[in-house]
User: Which sequence fits this backbone?
């Protein structure tokens, strides 16, 4: 790898059933739609087409991300690649908003509060009721975690706080060892990671939306900092392997909860 960039490929999971119905999902474990599975296969095809063959892959412990990673790797003829799963890559926990219709939340609480809960850096959602918090502790995926690690609701700042140790301790060393690594996760865990990589200011991160199922490539230098300028269309130094579709799909994500069809 001497003199060559390290390559980090990020994929937000394909469309889930709650993406399609416009609900806040968070840590609720919902499956992909048929369209979401197709998006995952298309993502794998793009990896193969662009010669991006990761030696290691990482995902959350939620099925929509795991399934996307498995389908993408299979389509890229890379099913043999080890796939690690960590709760640290989970979607943002939306607290008491989880399961609620985004349009209804926007209508009830107003545009500004909806925007703050959905996209701000440091405004958390209403917390999960106390009687519902025990469900996470009983879930075998989280049983090994101390109680104070289980969220009742997170803002993006909180997500960054749990993603960074995984980046520093696991993903970054594997990039240095293998050169190309895939991370298949969620809109907010990926927003947190790219905020760190591109040093996006707190006040700018609210305008960043990551579309489902389209690989996003970051070429990193020896210090694992992104190479090249940020693309003004996306606000990122990474490049989407299908930029025109990424523009369309990001616009749909931005429109979720409005009167316009969300789509993704």
Assistant:
């Amino acid at each position: 790898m001497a003199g060559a960039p390290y390559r980090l490929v990020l994929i937000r999971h394909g469309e889930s059933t709650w993406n399609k119905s416009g609900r806040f999902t968070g840590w609720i474990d919902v499956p992909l739609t048929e369209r979401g599975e197709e998006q995952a296969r298309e993502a794998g095809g793009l990896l193969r087409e662009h010669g991006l063959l990761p030696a290691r892959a990482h995902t959350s412990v939620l099925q929509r991300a795991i399934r996307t990673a498995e389908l993408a790797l299979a389509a890229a003829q890379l099913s043999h690649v080890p796939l690690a799963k960590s709760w640290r890559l989970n979607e943002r926990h939306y607290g008491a908003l989880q399961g609620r219709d985004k349009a209804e939340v926007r209508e009830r609480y107003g545009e500004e509060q909806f925007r703050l809960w959905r996209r701000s850096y440091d405004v958390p959602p209403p917390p999960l009721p106390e009687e519902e918090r025990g469900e996470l502790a009983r879930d075998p995926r989280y049983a090994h975690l101390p109680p104070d690690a289980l969220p009742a609701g997170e803002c993006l700042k909180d997500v960054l706080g749990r993603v960074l140790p995984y980046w520093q301790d696991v993903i970054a060393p594997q990039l240095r060892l293998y050169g190309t690594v895939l991370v298949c996760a969620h809109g907010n865990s990926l927003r947190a990671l790219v905020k760190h990589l591109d040093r996006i200011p707190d006040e700018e991160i609210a305008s960043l939306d990551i579309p489902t199922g389209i690989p996003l490539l970051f070429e990193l230098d020896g210090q694992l900092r992104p190479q090249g300028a940020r693309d003004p269309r996306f606000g990122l130094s990474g490049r989407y392997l299908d930029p025109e579709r990424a523009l369309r799909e990001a616009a749909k994500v931005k429109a979720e909860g409005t009167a316009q069809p969300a789509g993704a």
